[in-house]
Design goal:
The complex is a heterodimer of chains A (841) and B (224).
Chain A lengths: L1 H10 L3 H40 L4 E3 L4 H8 L4 E12 L8 E7 L1 H4 L3 H5 L3 E2 L7 E5 H6 L8 E4 L2 E9 L9 E7 L5 H6 L3 E8 L5 H12 L4 H7 L2 E3 L1 H6 L11 H30 L3 H12 L4 H44 L18 H28 L2 H6 L19 H12 L1 H34 L8 E7 L5 H7 L5 E14 L10 H10 L6 E7 L1 H10 L10 E4 L1 E3 L11 E3 L7 E5 L6 E10 L13 E7 H10 L9 E9 L4 H13 L7 E5 H44 L1 H9 L4 H37 L6 H6 L3 H26 L4 H5 L4
Parallel strand pairs in A: 3-8, 5-7, 13-19, 14-18
Antiparallel strand pairs in A: 1-9, 1-10, 2-3, 2-9, 4-7, 5-8, 6-7, 11-20, 11-21, 12-13, 12-17, 12-20, 14-19, 15-16, 17-18
Helix pairs in contact in A: 1-13, 2-11, 2-13, 2-14, 2-23, 11-14, 11-17, 11-23, 13-14, 13-23, 16-25, 17-23, 17-25, 17-27, 23-27, 25-27
Chain B lengths: L1 E12 L5 E7 L2 E3 L3 E6 L5 H8 L7 E6 L2 E2 L5 H11 E4 L11 H11 L6 H11 L14 H13 L5 E5 L7 H18 L2 E5 L3 H5 L3 E6 L2 E6 L2
Parallel strand pairs in B: 4-9, 4-10, 7-8, 8-9
Antiparallel strand pairs in B: 1-2, 1-3, 1-5, 5-6, 10-11
The chains are: A alpha+beta (841), B alpha/beta (224).
């Protein structure tokens, strides 16, 4: 009906009345839009990146036979079937005698895997006679280069490209890539090698169901078993991006964890947005009420009134929403730019993200979703005012009074000496419901901001109390196929400025609960029952330097000369959910237990490990006490001997050595250099990894600055939201009471008294806001504490909040409310008493 | 022809001491009648008018307008009935400030989705002397002109009855006389039944019948 649209359009032309509403909508759209763009950038870009890197296939089946290949080819549900084949060539005349060649179809080769992750020089193989080689090959075999011819087995190739790859010195094989080409399937499966199938289904939504059917048809066994053993792989990241889950409609745990926080945050913001807009609409000016009364008395039905209000809301919101979309996009770019600047400020030491500065993806879907979400929020916010206006009594409306029994609470109160305080309290109580929406909106805004602070508080406490301290500030790890040269260990001890250093190795086993009845101590059993936790620890044997192990034995009253067996670290946390610093410890094993039955994951051999003694602390504080680990100790020589004698060392299961060094922070760079020089004299650089405390500190600092930046940005946004809401609510409320103030003045109230009265109203209002906020804060603190199984009590979390920021937020909000009251007061009192009382238009 | 009839119409406001605003009023109006209802402040005349216009619901009794019992209509049906059969004029704030004079006049028709009869519209605005003001906004009119527009709006649907609550209460003497004359003219020319609430004797005397409201009861007084 045109007249309703015209009425709606005409009533939004009054800029002053609608300014606060538009501002609220604009700020809210910027807030939600920024969040959505960040989600989109993180999620979609990551998904697209994954897709570019790995492709958009649905599943991969490894090690297929020719018969299986034929069956797959005939399967109509499969849209595309691509193959790859891996062959191993040995005894070749290169620095490393072996080469693993991965032949892939052009589709599989054509991902950005080589360009993004592995810096490709040259090009991917475009023909079956071209081959892509690794950088170590070129470096170690300088007679070859890009464009060279190379004979591999019985075939000749041309090197078309070189890609970056990391190889340990002891790895026997290079890794090359070529293009798969075959005339008949028999050729493909003929000369050995391992053929894998990459599958695209006609209907990707049926991926999991169809794959299970295929496995059943091929007689391949259970899906879960194959996934565990590596015989089957789903492109989970790609599929989840399209909301296709292995369990059907139920998302995976990873997906839920990734999205629960994001959706939760958005779900908190949407109601905030709705409340803000609702506040703006609900306090109707007296003129608007009378207009509705007049329209109803002229014959406007309640439905037409509701339509009018809703259309007015939509008209008011359209421009701010559109502007908000653009500003939200700009805001997101600004945020990422600031984070990029922060990263650059970290300097050479450590860069956690290596992010390039690019514009945030202007995802059209985000614009559409944000627009629709904003419109939906506006509609929901306008729902109650529209319904209320529809039900409005004509008489009340013509008098300009709010509907009976909704906004105004009438109470009998006694007045004390301070008349302005009494009147202020009366007004506050009468109009409490009017301000309730504003108070809730401000408290919610504060709450969303505080969520960041609460999480930071938890993190801060975890850093202080749940991060085990280590006396070492330099850790080096290297991999080798032989015993570590003892000269290396001796030379390490000669490096100056080192307070202490230790070298050790380790090997892991699997714990077998069924074969270790009577091993776990009673205290641990009781604790597991109480905390209702399952117990699946890993078993690690640590091989300490011989001298260190001997010293350990002597320390604990054992005779090194007569010692046989392993030392068991016989301590475990009674409640691992407690912060590390607050944990108490109980015995891990029963005193009577003399062996521990374990299984080697490499060859599934079972061992009965003899326990010769028990210790109560991790030797030399090399590691903290992990609750899910059973640690045993022996000498380095013993462990090396065990592994070498029992064939437990190969290029895929090398011996890992760790060096832990403690030194002063000032000399850490020089000590780091000295340690590396010493190691590299014996161990190739490719086999060594080192990190020191300085790098960790720089990374933490960068993270801290990012968080601070984010917190302050969020704080600014929410302060604006809260204040715009306050301004709007307060102004509209005061405007609706213009006549009341004129009457008070005509009865003899001075301007100063009026000011004081409003001051008291402001005070009670602020008290209401603070009350709501404290309640929400308490709930938020309790919720996080409960989520973390009370690692820290709610009280501890609360005390560790960033109070300066919180107080600053409050101060700004309080000043804002006061300023809104002040400006509102000045506005309503600018008109003369007579003009106000006689006011028509 | 009886255009409006009430049967034992009453309005009682509940409370610690119930207030009887209208007490068993029986009123009958013929088509084309021009009546005034006078009474002191608080006598219940505005309440009676609001009930007649369907703006307020009676506690007891019935109201028939063109043989339709309007007390049985729900809010939506009452709104539709009102826009087609009843015109209401108030003391002030009669016009929508954002609409032109023309649209203010046509408001009931526009809400009904109907088009105006151009010749009838022309006749109405000419009778009321506002044909040159059609594209103006209410703020650009004087008080008297605004009331003329309100009268025009109340006429445009050819209603069964026009109810006016203190229509001259906000006007000066000159405008009061003009508006009073216009009411007479409208009544004669369009044969519209008019009910005026007023406390102005002169305005009351311009009507065919004067009814007096005393403590919620309606009494007849002949105009001299």
């Amino acid at each position: 009906m045109k007249i309703i649209s015209e009425l709606a359009k005409a009533s939004t032309k009054h800029r002053e009345n609608s300014l606060a509403i538009r501002a609220s909508i604009l700020v809210a759209v910027i807030m939600m839009g920024t969040l959505l763009f960040i989600y989109s950038e993180l999620e979609l870009s990551e998904w697209k990146y994954h897709q570019e890197l790995f492709g958009d296939y649905h599943a991969q089946l490894y090690g297929i036979f020719e018969s299986e290949y034929m069956q797959l080819q005939e399967n109509d549900a499969i849209k595309t079937l691509e193959l790859s084949k891996e062959i191993r060539l040995e005894d070749l005349p290169f620095q490393r005698a072996g080469i693993d060649i991965y032949f892939q179809s052009p589709t599989l080769l054509n991902t950005s895997f080589f360009t993004e992750a592995r810096s490709l020089e040259g090009q991917l193989p475009k023909q079956p006679t071209e081959i892509l080689v690794s950088e170590p090959f070129i470096l170690e075999n300088p007679e070859y280069s890009l464009g060279s011819a190379i004979r591999l087995g019985s075939k000749d190739y041309t090197i078309c490209g070189v890609y970056k790859e990391h190889l340990y010195s002891f790895q026997k094989n290079y890794q090359f890539f070529g293009q798969l080409s075959f005339d008949h399937s028999a050729d493909l499966f003929a000369d050995g090698g391992h053929v894998d199938a990459t599958i695209w289904f006609q209907n990707e939504r049926d991926t999991y169901r169809l794959m299970r059917q295929i496995l059943a048809d091929l007689g391949r066994g259970g899906e879960e078993e194959l996934l565990k053993t590596g015989g089957l792989h789903y492109n989970t990241r790609y599929l989840e991006g399209k909301l296709i889950f292995q369990s059907g409609l139920v998302p995976s745990r990873d997906f839920l964890e990734r999205w629960s926080f994001r959706v939760g945050l958005l779900a908190c913001m949407a109601p905030l947005f709705i409340i803000m807009i609702y506040n703006a609409f609900s306090v109707w000016s007296s003129q608007d009420l009378r207009q509705i009364g007049l329209l109803k008395s002229s014959g406007m039905t309640p439905k037409q009134v509701r339509r009018l209000i809703t259309e007015k809301a939509l008209r008011l919101s359209l421009r701010p929403i559109l502007l908000g979309l653009i500003l939200a996009y700009g805001c997101t770019n600004l945020l990422f730019y600031l984070m990029w600047l922060n990263e650059r400020a970290s300097g050479f030491v450590y860069s956690s993200t290596g992010r390039r500065l690019t514009l945030v993806t202007p995802n059209p879907l985000v614009f559409i979703i944000l627009f629709l979400l904003a419109v939906l929020c506006v509609l929901v916010a306008a729902l109650k005012p529209a319904r209320r206006s529809g039900k409005l009594s004509i008489i009340d409306a013509m008098k300009g009074s709010q509907p009976r029994g909704t906004k105004l609470r009438l109470r009998l109160t006694s007045y004390g000496k301070n008349i302005t305080r009494s009147l202020g309290k009366d007004n506050y109580l009468s109009y409490k419901r009017t301000f309730r929406g504003m108070a809730i909106a401000m408290a919610l805004a504060g709450m969303v901001f505080s969520t960041v602070l609460i999480i930071q508080s938890q993190r801060g406490l975890e850093t202080l109390y749940d991060t085990p301290s280590s006396p070492y500030n330099l850790t080096s790890t290297f991999f080798t196929m032989q015993r570590v040269p003892r000269d290396l260990l001796d030379e390490l001890k000669t490096i100056p400025d080192i307070t202490s250093s230790h070298v050790f190795t380790s090997y892991d086993f699997k714990y077998l609960p069924g074969e270790n009845q009577g091993f776990i101590s009673k205290e641990l059993q009781d604790s597991l029952q109480e905390t209702k936790q399952a117990y699946y620890p890993g078993v690690t044997i640590y091989g300490l330097e011989d001298s260190d192990f001997n010293a350990l034995l002597l320390q604990n009253g054992f005779d090194p000369a007569n010692h046989e067996g392993l030392l068991l670290l016989n301590q475990t946390a009674q409640n691992p959910r407690k912060a590390y610093a607050h944990r108490s410890y109980i015995p891990l094993s029963q005193e009577a237990a003399t062996t521990l039955v374990v299984q080697d994951g490499k060859d599934n051999t079972r061992y009965h490990l003899p326990i010769a003694g028990r210790i109560n602390a991790f030797p030399y504080d090399l590691y903290p006490l992990w609750p899910d680990q059973i640690a045993l100790f022996t000498s380095m020589s013993e462990l090396e001997e065990f592994r070498l004698q029992n064939d437990k060392v190969d290029e895929y299961h090398s011996i890992t050595y760790s060096i832990k060094v403690a030194t002063d922070l000032e000399v850490l760079p020089t000590v780091t250099e000295a340690v590396l020089d010493t190691i590299h004299a014996y161990i190739p650089k490719s086999d060594t990894f080192t990190r020191n405390q300085l790098g960790d500190l720089a990374s933490q600092e960068e993270q801290y600055r990012n968080e601070l930046l984010l917190t302050i940005s969020v704080q600014i946004l929410f302060v604006i939201i809260g204040l715009s809401n306050a301004y709007n609510s307060v102004h509209l409320n005061l405007k609706a009471r213009t006549r009341d103030f004129a009457l008070l003045q005509s009865a003899g109230m001075t301007e100063n008294q009026l000011k004081k009265m409003l001051g008291y109203e402001t005070f009670f209002l602020i008290r209401q806001v603070v009350g709501y906020y404290v309640l929400m804060l308490a709930l938020g603190v309790w919720a996080l504490s409960a989520k973390k199984h009370y690692m820290f009590s709610p009280w501890q979390l609360a005390l560790n909040l960033n109070f300066p920021l919180l107080i600053f937020f409050f101060a700004i909000s309080i000043v804002g409310i006061w300023a809104a009251m002040e400006s509102g007061r000045r506005k309503v009192l600018s008109q003369s008493i007579i003009a106000t009382l006689q006011q028509n238009y | 022809m009886t255009i409006l009839k009430t049967l034992n119409l009453s309005k009682v406001y509940p409370g610690t001491e119930p207030v009887v605003a209208v007490d068993k009023v029986n009123l009958m109006l013929e088509k084309g009648e021009h009546i005034a209802i006078v009474g002191n402040s608080g006598s219940g005349k505005s309440t009676l008018l609001h009930m007649l216009g369907g703006v307020d619901k009676p506690t007891e009794g019935q109201i028939f307008i063109q043989d339709v019992d309007v007390t049985t209509l729900n809010e939506r049906d009452m709104a539709i009935f009102r826009r087609r059969n009843i015109g209401i004029i108030y003391q002030f704030f009669n016009l929508i400030p954002n609409l032109t004079v023309e649209k203010n006049i046509l408001l009931p028709l526009l809400l009904d989705g109907r088009k105006a009869d151009p010749s009838f519209l022309q006749e109405v605005v000419q009778t009321l002397g506002i044909e040159n003001k059609m594209n103006r906004f209410p703020q650009q009119l004087s008080g008297g002109e605004q009331q003329r527009v309100a009268i025009a709006r109340s006429l445009v649907t050819r209603p069964a009855v026009i109810l006016a609550d203190e229509p001259t209460g906000n006007l000066d003497r000159k405008n009061t006389e003009e508006i009073t004359s216009l009411f007479r003219l409208v009544n004669q020319r369009f044969q519209t039944t008019l009910v005026l609430i007023t406390h102005d004797e002169k305005v009351a005397l311009s009507c065919d019948r004067i009814l007096t409201m005393v403590d919620g009861s309606l009494h007849e007084r002949r105009a001299s």
